[in-house]
Design a protein that fits this description.
Layout: H1 2-17, E1 20-22, H2 24-32, H3 39-53, E2 62-72, E3 76-77, E4 84-85, E5 89-103, H4 107-173, H5 180-214, E6 222-224, H6 239-263, E7 268-280, H7 296-302, E8 305-313, H8 321-387, H9 393-421
Helix pairs in contact: 2-4, 3-4, 4-5, 4-6, 4-9, 6-8, 8-9
């Protein structure tokens, strides 16, 4: 056992000293580069950018190759000879078709704006997700700071109970107190040790949660520094701000989409061209005896056809689809406008609540600190009176716990005040 104390204790101390100390900004930076937390939002941005990138390809003409082999039975008109065939006819054809739209009611530009607005919407969703992730990291980090402070205060109370027990042993020798006081102090000491163990277990759980958010190994241990909470680079935003911006972009997207749909109702002009050839067993060479089928090469060269054309398409009747689209778009715009009003009021409400929390927290923190200082003085004086045998152990323990509870309350209020200051004013 002695060897363990001589060898094990220095190892434990050196291990605790070697633990990495992480600032809040470091934790935030690691969490923001953890792509697994924002995989969906990043994928949507990539998809919308690809849609925008390949949109200009719609200006290029399309090219379609076609080929086929046919076998015909019975009386039919052969397209290559323009004559009727009454027997079995085998034919082949090859060709290329191409078309390009010259005018489509400026739908190309409308679609481009739709794609650009979609990118903005997806980028805003990513920013909102990152802001939410920062909030989770900060809340977890501050919780660890609270647990660290509670562990320190619990350890301090354990030391104070040990100090009280030392005084009790002296008073027992002098016959000035009963042995029951030592049993009570021992019970309080065990209770504080149990609390310290529970706090240590909760600490481990929260470190695993923070490691998960940062993408670090879950068993990584570290220490935290509460003073680093006031030194983060970017302030937090209320989620309602992102909600309001998102609704504004959605409204703009609806307007662009309506213009794009309206372009489909305008006339369109397209240019098309084709080239091809074919072979048919019905294509005979009547200049030769027996009228044999013309050779494959001769038919391919002779049956070559080409064509070019311009077509104008004018929509006349689409069974009310445009009216339906227009009215549905108007209903959706009205819905978004109402949601914007609600989101704007919620944002104002939360901003006012946040400011009120700051003011109340600051005033309450000053009061709690004053009470804690006063209770510390009461405990110090009570301890002196207990040494003189003028107070009972119950009174000294009550004074200690009242002071410690106010001290904990003051520390928690201070940390909550720092969290409130991390939000934009």
């Amino acid at each position: 056992m002695k060897w363990f104390l001589y060898i094990g204790f220095p190892l434990i101390v050196s291990s605790s000293l070697s633990q990495q100390s992480l600032t809040l900004q470091t934790c935030i930076d690691r969490a923001l580069v953890n792509s697994s937390q924002t995989a969906t939002e990043s994928s949507l941005i990539c998809s919308s950018r690809l849609d925008k990138q390949f949109h200009w390809w719609s200006l290029l003409p399309n090219l379609v190759a076609n080929a086929g082999v046919n076998t015909s039975f019975g009386r039919r008109l052969d397209p290559f000879t323009n004559t009727f065939a009454t027997s079995s006819v085998n034919s082949q054809f090859f060709g290329l078709n191409s078309s390009v739209q010259l005018f489509n009611g400026f739908n190309y530009f409308r679609k481009g704006r739709v794609y650009a607005t979609t990118i903005q919407l997806n980028e805003l969703a990513l920013s909102a997700k990152l802001n939410e992730l920062k909030i989770q990291v900060i809340e977890t980090y501050v919780t660890l700071c609270k647990l660290s402070k509670q562990k320190q205060l619990t350890q301090s109370r354990i030391e104070k109970y040990i100090q009280i027990q030392t005084i009790q042993r002296l008073l027992i020798r002098e016959g000035r107190i009963n042995v029951i006081d030592t049993l009570k102090s021992q019970h309080s000491l065990l209770r504080e040790q149990e609390l310290f163990s529970n706090l240590s277990n909760e600490w481990k759980l929260k470190t695993m949660q923070l490691n998960f958010l940062m993408g670090s190994p879950l068993r990584t241990d570290f220490t935290v520094d509460f003073t680093s909470t006031s030194m983060i680079r970017d302030k937090l935003k209320l989620q309602e701000k992102y909600r309001l911006e998102s609704l504004e972009i959605e409204l703009e997207l609806l307007r662009h989409q309506l213009k794009s749909d309206r372009s489909d109702m305008l006339p369109s002009i397209s240019l098309s061209g084709l080239v091809g050839t074919g072979f048919s067993t019905n294509n005979k060479d009547y200049s030769l005896p027996g009228s044999p089928t013309k050779s494959y090469t001769d038919q391919i060269n002779q049956n070559l056809y080409e064509g070019i054309g311009v077509s104008l398409n004018v929509p006349l009747f689409n069974r009310g689809e445009w009216l339906k689209t227009n009215q549905l778009n108007a209903v959706k715009q009205l819905e978004i406008e109402r949601k914007k009003e609600v989101a704007d009021r919620l944002l104002e409400k939360h901003q006012l609540e946040l400011e009120q929390y700051r003011l109340n927290n600051k005033a309450k923190l000053e009061q709690i600190r004053e009470l804690a200082d006063n209770l510390q003085l009461i405990y110090t004086k009570s301890l002196l009176l207990y040494e003189e045998g003028r107070l009972t152990y119950t009174e000294i323990e009550t004074a200690l716990m009242e002071w410690q509870m106010k001290l904990i309350e003051a520390e928690l209020l201070k940390m909550e005040h720092e969290i409130l200051n991390l939000y934009e004013h």
